[in-house]
Each structure stands twice: as structure tokens, then as C-alpha cells.
């Protein structure tokens, strides 16, 4: 008789342990599948990993695997609680239900939830792959019942007008990429330059050419009616390989002269530079609207043999120019060669402040300082100050915007030329 009681105890313990193991597997499956990296899975699938393919198939049908996991988890936990409650009631009467509730709560929370989910969180992708065969089997076994439950849920959603999104939209995916890059940088897996380049690539979609172009005030232009020798000499002295040519008025750009074409013409001319007809070797200007998306312009640059475009507004007025290099610099930062002129636009001071040119873009400043100044309504630092202050400030005035002090050091006519920027210490609340 006593032996039978011991056997019953051992059988009960074995059943409870088995159910707790199942609960742990199901809990870790849920956590790992929802936290698995889709990017890593795709890479592993491309290399022929079968487990990653099983995980991907499950993630492609989230309603099925989530429904099966939740159903199985509840069945296992309820079954374990029912068995141990019935056993304790036979031993202690009505108080046994209280004892069983306390014991099962502790066991389920520790061994069925906290421990397995903590393991899954630490390595979600690896855990999901390890448990993918188990989860696939659970989904197949409970598919009919899950389908019925899902029908009831969908009916409930339709009655109350609730729309459930099953596909991650593009903006969400890009935000996840940004977050992953930021976290990787914080943990040292990605250095600052790599973070900036990856972030710059993601930012291209949000930019128009007007935010990237060289402004018309900074364009080097030449009058085509100058004597050929003087014109060509000036072009060869500039650091640029392409120079716009105008006639009568700088708004009237009639061509673009490439330095290679000039050198070729000089080498082929029997009487030197004086006999060169610049109008015959210049190239037709390519005009684009200032609202063109940077990604679209990048594709156009890559698809045609012209990497230089004149930017105009809706009235046809020249606003600036953009080159392939300007767009690439948005990704990789400044590209300079031995012919470029060094333009000191940002200088760090001994006290930690920065002296910057007003035409420095907010994006470039954020990249170099790791600040988070917004740039939705303006492009340059001068534009930020005028937009936020609603005035054209005088020399010596200072303002505080977004936790940064802006002091006007130099103003020329209506243009802010130089500023001092100081990051204010954050207030401790």
C-alpha cells in the first residue's frame, strides 16, 4: 500500500516536471520567435541553413504560431495546476487548493516563464532556430483548433472595426534599422564613422536635392564671352573639374565646361588657347527641379554619363548645383582630394564650444558633434537660428534652442556668417 503511494507521488512529480518543461519550451519559443533578427535569418537562409528557413516560415504566418503557442501554453499550465490542486485537496481538504495555487504559481513563474524567457532574450535567433522544429510540430497538431479560434478573433475585430496590421511598413523597418545601428554603436560593435555612413544611407530617402546642393552664392561660374585664354586659365586654376558658363547674366547658364575637354582641346589646337572655341567643347546644362528626391537623382546620375546638374526652383530660377560627389558625401562624409580647397567651417574651441560658419548644414554639424538638432524646416545653422528666432539677429545676440546656445559672431548684410555654439549641460531633475 505504502509502495503504491510512493509510486503515485513519483508519477505526479514526473507529470508536473514534464508539464513545466513543456511550459518552458513554449515560453522561450514565444520570446525567441518575436525577438529573432530577420536580417540574420535571411543571411543564414541564403547560406542554406534549414533551421533558419523553418523560423522564417513561422514568422511569415504569425497568427498561426502565436495562436498555437498561446493555446498550448495555457493548456499545459492549466493542466498542471488542475492535477496538483486535485492531489493537494485529497491530502489537505479545501486548504489544499490554496497550497496548490501558491506552489504552482512559484513553479510556473520561475521555471515556466522567467528562466526560459531570460535565456531566449539573450540569444533570440539561436533559440528560435533550436526550437523551430518543436514549434512547427505544435502548430501542425493544434492547427484545426487554432483556425477556429482565429476565426472568432477575426470576427470580433470586424464587429468592432479593429484592423490588425500583419506586415511591417517601410518606415517601421527603417526605424528598426536605425535603432539596431544605434545600439550596435553604443556597444562598440559599430564605430562612429560606420554609424554615420549607415545612417546617411538611410537618410537619403528623406532628402531633396535642395538640401544637399551647392548654393548659387558658392558656385564658381565663368562668363563665356571672356577671351578664350583668360577663360581657360581661370578654369584650370579652380579646384573644380566642371564649371558652368553663363552669358550676360548668371541666371543664363548656357553650358558646362569640363576640364578634360579643355585639356583635350588645347592638345589638339595648332595655335594654342587663343583659337579655342569654348562654345564647341562645352556640354549642355542639365536642369533639375529643387524638389527632386536625392535617391531619384542618385539613380539618374548612375544611369547616365553626366554627374553634374543645375538645380532650379518652380520659377526656373537657378538655386544651386549638385554633383554625384555631393550625394556620396551625404553617405561617407567629406570627400577631398589634393585639388580641393580646405574650407574651415567648424572649429572646436578649448572650452568645448564650436565656432561654425553659418552655411554649415545642420546634418553635418550633428554628424561631427553627435548632437540632435532638428533639420526638418531648414538646412543650415544660419537657417535654424533665423527660423527659430523669427528675426535676422544682430552681431552679439545669443539664443538658446534645443539645449544649445547660439551666439552670433559675424553678420554680413542679412546673412549670418559665423556663430559660436555651446552645448548646455542637462538639468538634473
Topology:
Layout: H1 2-35, H2 38-46, H3 50-60, H4 62-92, H5 95-122, H6 124-141, H7 143-160, H8 170-186, H9 192-203, E1 214-215, E2 222-223, H10 228-237, E3 242-247, E4 249-258, H11 259-268, H12 278-281, E5 287-289, H13 294-303, E6 308-312, E7 318-323, H14 324-332, E8 346-348, E9 354-357, H15 362-369, H16 381-389, E10 398-401, E11 404-412, E12 415-423
Parallel strand pairs: 2-3, 5-6
Antiparallel strand pairs: 1-7, 3-4, 6-7, 8-9, 9-12, 10-11, 11-12
In words, what does this structure look like?
This protein is of the alpha+beta class and 429 residues long. The protein is 55% helix and 15% strand. The chain has helices at residues 2-35, 38-46, 50-60, 62-92, 95-122, 124-141, 143-160, 170-186, 192-203, 228-237, 259-268, 278-281, 294-303, 324-332, 362-369, 381-389, and strands spanning 214-215, 222-223, 242-247, 249-258, 287-289, 308-312, 318-323, 346-348, 354-357, 398-401, 404-412, 415-423. The chain has a 5-stranded antiparallel sheet with strand order 8-9-12-11-10, covered by helices on one side. The protein has a 4-stranded mixed sheet with strand order 1-7-6-5. A hairpin with a 5-residue loop joins strand 8 and strand 9 (354-357). Helix 1 (2-35) packs antiparallel against helix 4 (62-92), helix 1 packs across helix 6 (124-141) and helix 4 (62-92) crosses helix 6 (124-141). It starts with a helix and ends in a 6-residue tail after the last strand.
Amino acid at each position: 500500500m505504502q509502495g503504491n503511494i510512493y509510486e503515485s507521488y513519483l508519477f505526479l512529480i514526473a507529470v508536473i516536471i514534464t508539464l513545466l518543461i513543456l511550459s518552458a519550451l513554449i515560453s522561450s519559443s514565444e520570446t525567441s520567435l518575436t525577438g529573432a533578427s530577420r536580417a540574420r535569418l535571411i543571411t543564414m537562409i541564403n547560406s542554406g541553413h534549414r533551421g533558419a528557413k523553418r523560423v522564417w516560415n513561422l514568422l511569415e504566418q504569425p497568427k498561426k504560431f502565436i495562436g498555437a503557442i498561446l493555446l498550448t501554453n495555457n493548456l499545459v499550465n492549466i493542466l498542471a495546476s488542475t492535477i496538483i490542486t486535485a492531489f493537494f485537496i485529497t491530502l489537505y481538504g479545501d486548504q489544499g487548493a490554496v497550497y496548490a495555487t501558491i506552489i504552482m504559481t512559484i513553479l510556473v513563474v520561475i521555471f515556466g516563464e522567467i528562466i526560459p524567457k531570460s535565456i531566449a532574450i539573450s540569444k533570440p535567433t539561436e533559440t528560435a532556430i533550436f526550437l523551430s522544429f518543436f514549434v512547427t510540430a505544435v502548430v501542425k497538431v493544434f492547427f484545426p483548433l487554432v483556425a477556429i479560434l482565429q476565426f472568432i478573433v477575426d470576427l470580433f475585430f470586424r464587429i468592432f472595426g479593429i484592423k490588425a496590421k500583419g506586415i511591417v511598413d517601410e518606415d517601421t523597418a527603417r526605424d528598426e534599422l536605425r535603432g539596431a545601428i544605434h545600439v550596435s554603436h553604443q556597444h562598440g560593435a559599430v564605430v562612429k564613422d560606420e554609424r554615420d555612413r549607415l545612417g546617411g544611407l538611410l537618410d537619403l530617402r528623406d532628402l531633396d536635392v535642395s538640401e544637399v546642393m551647392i548654393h548659387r552664392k558658392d558656385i564658381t561660374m565663368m562668363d563665356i564671352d571672356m577671351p578664350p585664354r583668360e577663360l581657360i586659365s581661370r578654369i584650370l586654376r579652380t579646384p573644380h573639374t566642371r564649371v558652368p558658363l553663363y552669358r550676360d547674366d548668371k541666371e543664363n547658364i548656357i553650358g558646362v565646361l569640363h576640364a578634360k575637354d579643355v585639356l583635350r582641346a588645347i592638345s589638339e589646337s595648332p595655335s594654342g588657347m587663343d583659337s579655342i572655341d569654348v562654345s564647341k567643347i562645352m556640354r549642355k546644362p542639365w536642369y533639375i527641379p529643387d524638389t527632386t528626391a536625392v535617391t531619384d537623382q542618385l539613380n539618374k546620375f548612375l544611369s547616365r554619363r553626366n554627374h553634374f546638374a543645375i538645380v532650379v526652383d518652380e520659377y526656373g530660377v537657378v538655386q544651386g548645383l549638385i554633383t554625384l560627389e555631393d550625394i556620396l558625401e551625404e553617405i561617407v562624409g567629406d570627400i577631398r582630394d589634393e585639388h580641393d580647397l580646405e574650407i574651415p567651417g567648424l572649429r572646436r574651441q578649448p572650452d568645448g564650444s564650436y565656432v561654425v560658419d553659418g552655411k554649415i548644414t545642420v546634418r553635418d554639424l550633428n554628424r561631427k558633434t553627435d548632437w540632435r538638432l532638428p533639420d526638418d524646416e531648414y538646412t543650415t545653422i544660419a537657417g535654424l537660428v533665423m527660423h527659430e528666432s523669427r528675426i535676422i539677429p544682430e552681431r552679439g545676440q545669443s539664443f538658446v534652442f534645443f539645449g544649445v546656445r547660439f551666439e552670433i559672431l559675424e553678420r554680413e548684410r542679412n546673412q549670418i556668417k559665423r556663430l559660436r555654439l555651446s552645448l548646455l549641460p542637462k538639468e538634473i531633475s
